[in-house]
Write a structure and sequence with these properties.
By secondary structure, the protein is mainly alpha-helical. It contains 22 helices and six strands. The strands form two sheets. Strands 1-2-3 form a three-stranded mixed sheet. α1 packs across α3 and α5 packs across α7. The longest helix is centred in the last third of the chain and has 35 residues. The radius of gyration is 30 Å and the shape is extended.
Length: about 450
């Protein structure tokens, strides 16, 4: 929905709320997609949000809740009475219901589970035993499965019987009489097969499946690698227990990307919620900021040791920002590539070494280009050839040093069981300032000594 259209609908809804024209208001709500409704409700005032949400049918409300961001969802759920919340949870698929219940306080979750359908409660409780970021935690228990000795016609009848329970059918899973996954039949192949054909004669036995304890990132990488739209989930005995669909994978990718971005900034998941203690947030950020603080003190000490050079030529300080910025940016570029490779587990150890050598070669090339560029600028601007060489070589060495640090530090931190996404930034900043200034002023000191 375009922003202008959304604003117009928001104004119309506000007008209908003021006029208490409930029938027309409900017509607008029914005709609007749940994802758009979520955006519209976010644009409203708190009292308006509550009133609109009351007019939504439980099925629509369950879809809208899933479209909210974490903060909006938490704020809204706090204001919903238990009976209404139970209705909403009851309308959700098992995986979505489990995700929502897991975010509720224990006493609220207990009450909600006691008020929903018995079968739905059993399914949600089955999912809640799994870790949130595992295949078991994101799988749904709604799927279509038939025995491999049944016919194609039996499979089609099974799809019809489960049409209300399973919204999207991509595959029919084939199991043996012990419930073990033995094959899969794509929906297209099922439709095109003869009704009397046995499932085991039309199924594909090469099935990409995951166990319940597999990390959600592994599942997302599997879906990406093999272009899958759904993944069957099995237990330790290869018995089919659930499935993960492409919409769940999209949510995982978004969640992991947001998590990585927050960690690169030194922000934890707790900080996303508004009522988190400032002391707890500070505790998470302080260790790495302390490292950066100590590093900057070392940088200040290095500059103090070269104060004689600064007195001899003021222009030396003109290029400190250039040296620091180019080194820092180069280091961040290299570290981003390495952290991404580690997060996606690309290529293993051999590829990691090749990537480090590649980054070093890129650093040599970039260092040479910018070194030459700064030399030409100083020659044209200040007409000083030797000073131009000093700054040029300093810039080149600083870029190379920063890239080496930016490439090696994430790998080292990963080996030491630290999260490279959250810890790499302070190391790069600190090492760039320390070694960058040390290289620059050391070369400058040699240059000034030579002048004398």
């Amino acid at each position: 929905m375009e922003l202008q259209d959304r604003k117009e609908i928001v104004e119309n809804i506000r007008y209908l709320l003021q006029e208490k024209d409930v029938p027309k208001l409900k017509n607008i709500l029914v005709d609007t997609h749940p994802a758009d409704l979520a955006d519209i409700i976010r644009d409203m005032e708190d009292h308006e949000q509550d009133e609109i949400f009351r007019y939504l049918e439980p099925e629509t409300a369950s879809e809208v809740v899933l479209e909210f961001d974490d903060v909006t969802r938490e704020q809204l759920i706090k204001k919903i009475d238990m009976a209404r919340l139970s209705e909403i949870v009851d309308e959700m698929d098992s995986d979505d219901a489990a995700d929502l219940v897991a975010t509720l306080p224990d006493h609220v979750a207990e009450t909600v589970l006691s008020q929903i359908d018995k079968q739905d409660r059993v399914e949600v409780e089955k999912l809640l035993i799994h870790e949130e970021d595992t295949a078991g935690g994101i799988m749904a228990l709604e799927f279509v499965a038939v025995y491999d000795d049944q016919t194609v016609d039996d499979a089609i009848q099974e799809i019809r019987q489960k049409s209300q329970e399973v919204e999207q059918v991509y595959h029919v899973y084939a199991i043996d009489r012990s419930g073990r996954l033995v094959g899969v039949v794509p929906l297209k192949k099922l439709i095109l097969s003869k009704p009397k054909n046995l499932i085991k004669d039309v199924m594909t036995t090469e099935v990409q499946s995951v166990t319940v304890e597999k990390d959600q990132e592994y599942v997302a990488n599997l879906v990406s690698k093999y272009d899958l739209v759904s993944v069957p989930v099995v237990d330790s005995m290869n018995r089919l227990v659930g499935r993960i669909t492409i919409d769940d994978i999209v949510d995982v990718l978004q969640e992991e990307a947001n998590e990585d971005i927050r960690r690169m900034a030194g922000i934890t998941d707790e900080e996303v919620l508004q009522e988190t203690s400032s002391f707890r947030i500070s505790k998470n950020r302080l260790p790495w900021l302390v490292i950066a603080f100590i590093g900057e003190l070392v940088s200040a000490y290095i500059m103090s040791r070269f104060n004689a050079s600064l007195k001899q030529i003021v222009t030396l300080t003109f290029f400190v920002p250039v040296i620091m910025a180019m080194g820092g940016n180069s280091g961040i570029q290299a570290s981003t590539i390495v952290v991404r490779s580690i997060a996606l587990d690309e290529g293993g150890a051999s590829n990691r070494w090749e990537m480090l050598f590649r980054e070093f070669r890129v650093a040599l090339l970039n260092g040479f280009i910018f070194g030459l560029l700064i030399f030409l600028i100083i020659y044209i601007w200040l007409h000083q050839i030797m000073f131009g060489f000093v700054v040029s070589f300093a810039l080149m060495f600083v870029i190379i040093n920063s890239v080496i640090v930016g490439s090696i530090v994430p790998v080292t931190l990963h080996k030491l069981k630290f999260d490279p996404a959250i810890a790499t930034g302070p190391f790069i900043t600190t090492s760039n300032d320390i070694f960058g200034l040390l290289i620059y002023f050391s070369l400058a000191a040699v240059y000034f000594k030579w002048l004398q």
